[in-house]
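[Discussion] Sanity-checking designs against the backbone

I'm trying to build intuition for which residues belong where. Below is a structure token string of 376 positions. I'd appreciate it if someone posts a full sequence so I can compare it with mine line by line.
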């Protein structure tokens, strides 16, 4: 495993972090497969990964609970840097901050959090952060030793990102970035801007919700032109590991095979590892992919549950598979197998989902498109 120096703490952190939003599950969604997940975490930590990221809401709140039990049972709390997030959208008054923070400490069975984030900031939630003086809370907890470093995760446009970065000398921040999303939200522009102010980035969605791991054949053909054979995952992760502004990349791994592959890649690449030919290949792949129209859903599930029962991420997944793999019959059949209330046709256009989507998708219009496409 390669490590990078975290400037604000003068500590070494693995360039790959474990995101816990997509643990393998059994039975109902959110029911974590304890055996598989334990094996994955054991392998990751034994192979040098030392950063684990969770949040209050992941797996319906069970991610923090599971992780606390795991760290206590395995006695590895002092071997890893633990990150979790304040659910800003749940905060209505100042006392809520202590309420949720203390729940998280109990769930995680720890007396402190290494990296604490204000979760999913956008213009509206940023105003709430300022109005409720949430930074004062973070500063106090840091002084008390209950938080070592604090920052924020972000889902909005560059100008809002710049405002937040300029507001305070944050320890770190977290944004979505991959070779397809270089101009999306904060993007590479935000990455460079923050680095100039001495703030390093933690990257989420390096594989764009898994999409970059399984590209269409046209993208695979681009990669195959390079003299050295690499998997799509290696191409995607190396793009980020190459950048000096990035402290680590978070991968939401959901299988043992994914953990092994991600660690193998993270053990190969350092800053400025890619040559000009490799960077050119990635640029060509991006251009080729942009010619394929698809829905930019990352399966974060912030839009769920839908008040009317529509399974929004699943509808998007089916449609994206149709676009990428050009198999209308197979994906139309998968759409028809959904429960009636889960189908795009059950959308009542209430708009609740659109206010919650970090990707700012026009969900209502997209569900109409999906319904028209698969009702054949």
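Best answer:
Here's mine. Compare freely.
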């Amino acid at each position: 495993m390669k490590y990078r120096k975290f400037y604000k703490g003068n500590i070494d952190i693995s360039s790959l972090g474990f995101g816990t939003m997509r643990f393998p599950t059994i039975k109902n969604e959110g029911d974590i497969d304890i055996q598989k997940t334990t094996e994955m975490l054991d392998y990751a930590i034994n192979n040098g990964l030392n950063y684990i990221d969770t949040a209050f809401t992941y797996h319906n709140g069970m991610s923090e609970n599971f992780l606390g039990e795991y760290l206590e049972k395995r006695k590895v709390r002092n071997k890893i840097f633990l990150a979790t997030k304040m659910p800003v959208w749940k905060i209505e008054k100042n006392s809520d901050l202590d309420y949720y923070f203390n729940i998280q400490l109990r769930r995680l069975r720890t007396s402190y959090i290494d990296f604490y984030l204000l979760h999913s900031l956008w213009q509206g939630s940023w105003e709430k952060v300022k109005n409720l003086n949430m930074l004062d809370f973070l500063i106090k907890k840091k002084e008390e030793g209950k938080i070592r470093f604090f920052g924020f995760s972000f889902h909005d446009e560059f100008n809002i990102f710049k405002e937040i970065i300029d507001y305070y000398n944050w320890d770190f921040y977290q944004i979505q970035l991959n070779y397809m999303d270089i101009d999306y939200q904060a993007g590479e522009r935000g990455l460079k801007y923050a680095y100039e102010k001495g703030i390093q980035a933690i990257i989420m969605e390096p594989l764009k919700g898994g999409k970059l791991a399984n590209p269409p054949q046209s993208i695979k053909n681009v990669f195959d032109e390079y003299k050295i054979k690499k998997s799509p995952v290696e191409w995607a992760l190396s793009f980020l590991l190459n950048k000096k502004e990035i402290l680590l990349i978070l991968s939401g791994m959901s299988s043992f095979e994914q953990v092994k592959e991600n660690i193998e890649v993270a053990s190969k690449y350092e800053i400025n590892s890619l040559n000009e030919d490799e960077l050119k290949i990635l640029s060509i792949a991006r251009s080729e992919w942009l010619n394929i129209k698809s829905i930019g859903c990352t399966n974060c599930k912030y839009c769920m549950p839908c008040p009317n029962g529509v399974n929004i991420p699943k509808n998007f997944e089916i449609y994206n598979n149709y676009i990428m793999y050009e198999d209308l019959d197979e994906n139309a059949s998968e759409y028809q197998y959904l429960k009636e209330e889960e189908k795009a046709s059950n959308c009542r256009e209430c708009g609740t989902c659109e206010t919650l989507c970090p990707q700012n998708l026009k969900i209502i219009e997209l569900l109409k498109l999906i319904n028209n496409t698969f009702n054949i």
